[in-house]
Amino acid sequence: MQFYFAFKISTESQSIVKPMKTTIPETGEPIAKTASNGGEHPEFSLHGEILSRLRDYVVEGNIEDGARVPERQLCDMFGISRTPLREALKVLAAEGLIELLPNRGARVRQLSGHDLEELFEVMGGLESLAGRLACETITDEELAEIEQLHYEMYGHYLHRDMHNYFLINQRIHERIVAASRNETLRATYANFAGRIRRVRYSANFARKRQRWAEAMREHEAILDALRRRAGSELSDILFHHLRNKRAAAVEHLAEIENGTSASAGDSQSLPIVNS
Known about the structure:
disordered C terminus; Arc Repressor Mutant, subunit A
């Protein structure tokens, strides 16, 4: 398995970013086919694909915290015009990943240690409540889907594939929240999850914590409690699971501030923290 990192150079006027994963075409070839009449409108959902790839690009740290989003460079990478890119940026702003600047483009949202403490406290409470409610309402079909995702995630863990591990990990948590049958809870969770998605991913690179195996054991416990519909037990497991994520995220932020965070040269041997 390979990990990819970005080299970032920021000045007051621009941010220069090199892609660190292969979901963005290197040739500048358009993601979607153009219409048969030669126009610029795609034959299928260009917006959805751009949004997904741009979200991954930001979440995986290709643009540093607080840096301007290099729209022209991203347009060249995606092979698109600025209009669909800016539409995708609006969605990411609504999710809390970036901030839109009036007449000045966008920048990646930067969170302080205090912000992380508060956000993870709220997320822990939301997931704890979701787990309790899900045990009362989850169907056999929903449980089977979560089980399948768990084994898929375990496969990525065995292959040290952190990118796909993270994606499946997020889906599992989202499925548990959805199984709660509480739309207010689901909407609130989605709002806060967007704000810390980037931080949860970057916490995988905290140097001092060796939590990936421990995280898998926690997910085994989550699945076991869900199978037994043990609401109180699952609630406690999820709350402590988020507490551990918070500790890794805060630690990684401190490493960045101290200039000791992971670099491209040592990423292959870096122990991975729960995402």
